[in-house]
Amino acid sequence: MSDPQDPPAAPPIQAVPVEPSTEQGGDGPSPETITEPAKLLRIASMVRELLEETRHASMDEPGRKRLLDIYRRSVEELGGSVSPDLKEELQELVPPLDGVPSEAEMRVAQAQLVGWLEGLFHGIQAAMFAQQMAARQQFEEIRRRGLMAQNPQQQGQPDQGGPPRGQYL
User: Is pTM beyond 0.70 here?
Assistant: First the structure.
């Protein structure tokens, strides 16, 4: 049972990848983009599930080889779903696994990949939140300007508390 003084848990936020604005001047860095968000989410789910499964089972050499193949293919597919700068970041993070890796090496590599993907999703959520806030501010500004244009004589005057006035009343 939870403590009544604990704040309620926030509902989970669904990650919906967005592409940041491409309006960058000159030779700045390319924007971080995701070209295939559904593919990215499928791979992330698969890698996370594989990590969970490897925690609960001991793997023999053929199993580790198969897991290594899946891991390498996942990294390759992820690289094809993101912009060049994110692909480079991913390649720097991926540890070189030569031969048949041990169970511990595979778990660490998978955990790194899951962590990178979670960071990517958090970045997407933050970008979406910032876009929503900017859109809300723009909407409020447009609305404020529209109200001022409709009632120019009442600019700066407080609401009189009477019934709303309009063309139909």
Answer: no
